[in-house]
Amino acid sequence: MVAHLIRLKLVLLRNGLRRSVGQLVGLIVASLYGLGILLLAVTGLIVLRAVDAQIAETVVVLGGSALLVGWGLTPILLSGVDLTLDPARFAPFPIPLPRLLAGQAIAGLIGVPGVCTTIALAATLVTWSRGPGVFAVAVLGALLALGLCVVVSRLVASALTDLASSRRFREASRIVVMVPLVLLGPIIALAARGIEMNAAALRSLAGVLSWTPLGAAFSAPAAAAEGDALGALAKLVIAAASLSLAAWGWSRALARALVTPASRAASGGRATARRGIGAFGWMPATPWGAIAARSLTYWIRDPRYAAALIIVPLLPVILYFSSVQRHNSEMFLLSGPLAAFMLAWSLASDISYDSTAFALHLSAGVRGRYDRRGRALALLTFAVPAAVVITLVPFLVSGRWALLPAYLGLVFGVLLSGVGLASVVSSRFVVAVPLPGESPFKRPPGNTAQTILVQLGGLVALGILVLPEIVLVALATGTGAGFGWAALLVGLVLGATLALLGMWLGGKLLDRRGPEVYAALTKAG
Amino acid sequence: MTVPSFSVPSRDVSPGGSALSLRGLVKSFGGKPAVNGISLEVPAGSFYGLVGPNGAGKTTTLSMATGLLRPDAGTAIVLGVDVWSDPLAAKRLMGVLPDGVRLFDRLSGEQLITYSGLLHGLDRRTAAQRTADLLAAFDLAADARTLVVDYSAGMTKKIALAASLVHAPRLLVLDEPFESVDPVSAANIRSILADYVRSGGTVIVSSHVMDLVQRMCDHVAVVAQGRLLAAGTVDEVRAGSTLEDRFVELVGGHGPTEGLSWLHT
């Protein structure tokens, strides 16, 4: 069974790569990235060999705990990514539970994260090669840690399979989990400032973690190195106990998953709460009005749209921290234009998000310009107020009101020109996005290279389109407010012109290439 | 009513005769031919079955007929309008149910039909009226406010079919309308389609359930490996035997085999 699962996983990996060059490139990039981090970690762990045991303990325990948390979070973010191990797939086969458990555990180690973790844990053996006793404890600790990584991740995945039968929960949890991840940068920056002030706090954090399941396996060899044999033993016991507890929980969850395969559970109970036809009732009763109503409904209901924009309301927070760090408040003022860019550019993947449902537009014979207009209208109904509010935040904080007209001009310029550009781009290029119903953070398969090219090309093209506004903002910042009002005027007039032009051109393209766009969507799934 | 034949004359068939006229359709994917010169006349007012084994090119053919897939060669004419030179006019005449295609399933059933109606240019009152009628006819009124993503497979098929009917098309092109539909819903769909044909509409359905086609359709075409093997009224094509036997004979399947003797208990 174990050998079968491992072979299955390897075959799936190979066949997946054979399917497309893009995926191969993706794996290579992921491997290089992983390799870089791994190299850093291994070098660090070897260097720690020469360092005082107490300092080494702090570093290893903190790093190790973070690693374990990462393994636990992965299944939430990337559900369905590891189909080999999806319990539902094994439900029809008569496989004894213990063998399935062992096979899943070992197969879980195959892949970039598993291999990197194994190597990094092996490197901790170098850190703790400080005598035979310490080394032996390190070996036990590393094995327990490896087991914990895999089992915790599997436990979370199995538990999720249970909860996943509720679509609403699944979709909400992914978005909620993403918020702290997006804020990770500022949190780390804040934490880094804290460390400069006192490393003692960090040491005490590691001290606490070392007695929890998260850090016990990592700190046992340190206790042994400091001559605390009893402490080392206690920590090994904590780690072993948590491992067996997690394994027990996993086997229970797996056993249950095998007899109750996840189904498309009907959540019909809530349906009565939904009233009428929503936006279709108040948008104009025309093809473009209907498309705007549909898009607006999707912006609210489809988590993939929300996920693409989750960073937008957080932008002022992130930029506030980095501007405080660099003592440069101009950066904070850029919140508005950056938010405007992200909002506008999300339109560039709008058709790709439709996937093959676009067939309805095509077979209904919707004119391209109505398609473009409807989608742009839906975005602008919430993007304009959102961008204005986000633009105001830094001015409320910094009080540099003289620059407000200039920045508003830039924001409108970016938003409107971006809508125009995205209207053309999305009717010409299909980009790789998660399919409907998939995790919004899943790395989508497909033409990743084209997606990246489209993104970069779009960024450059938009930069050129809003160059007048950028120049005026620079002049307003350098000299006087007169340029600010000019920027506002140019942003509104030039932006609106480009938006209309883009929708017209995009509509023409879509009329001509509708079936080809649809063929590309079919290919993507 | 013209009797369709295997070789279609190149001159224009009278527009009154055919609801859908395919001529020499060719499509290949990556060098592999999927449809290899299919010509077909679907008489107006007929209930036409398109049968063939999996991978025969049924879906490809119907996609080219409905303006979803651009053919490499050949033409498709709907009630006298060329699909590929005047797509907007042709699509107004057609209701299409593609197979294996997603729906905008974050809409409720009611919203999806309304959306389809408004896309086809209906005014608000007509769209609302027809949506209510269709939901009632397909027995979906109780689930009108449920999101389509939470529908069962059979309900999903029905709501898609309802969305393709809302603009009162004169030709219905349905790709596998009975797949994963329970018998009660299937009977429901069949009676709606039969009504539609009786009132002058034309239906072409693809299926690989021969029994169903034999009972439901008056005309049938058999395709395999991208070619048309036979076409005509059901009685002409089955030539005395059942449609299923005739189909296996035409397509050239295997008979019962001795290979699985260990399975015999």
**Architecture of the domain at 18-101 and 173-252 in chain B, CATH level 2?**
3-Layer(aba) Sandwich
The figure for the number of domains of chain A is 2
Largest interface: A-B, 44 and 45 residues
Overall body shape of chain B: globular
Compute the separation of the termini of chain A in Å.
32 Å
Class inferred from helices and paired strands of chain B = alpha/beta
The percentage helix of chain B is 25-40%
Q: State the end-to-end CA separation of chain B.
A: 54 Å
The sequence of SSEs of chain B as H and E is EEEHEEHEHHHEHEHEEHH
Average pLDDT number of chain B? 85
What is the CATH superfamily of the domain at 18-101 and 173-252 in chain B?
A: P-loop containing nucleotide triphosphate hydrolases
Largest sheet of chain B: 6 strands, mixed
Strand content bin of chain B: 15-25%
Quaternary: heterodimer
What gyration radius of chain B follows from the Cα positions, in whole Å?
Answer: 19 Å
- What's the total number of strands of chain A? 0
CATH T-level topology of the domain at 18-101 and 173-252 in chain B: Rossmann fold
SS strand fraction of chain A: under 5%
Tally of individual helices of chain A: 25
Q: Helix and strand succession of chain A?
A: HHHHHHHHHHHHHHHHHHHHHHHHH
What would your notes on this structure say?
- The complex is a heterodimer of chains A (525) and B (265).
- Chain A has 525 residues and is mainly alpha-helical.
- Chain A folds into two domains: 2-259, no CATH class; 283-524, no CATH class.
- Chain A is built from 25 helices and no strands.
- Residues 263-273 of chain A have low confidence and may be disordered.
- Chain B has a domain at 18-101 and 173-252: Rossmann fold.
- Helix content of chain B is 34%, strand content 25%.
- Chain B is built from nine helices and ten strands.
- In chain B, a hairpin with a 2-residue loop joins strand 4 and strand 5.
- In chain B, 52% of the residues are buried.
- Chains A and B meet through helix 14, helix 20 and helix 25 of A and helix 2 and helix 3 of B.
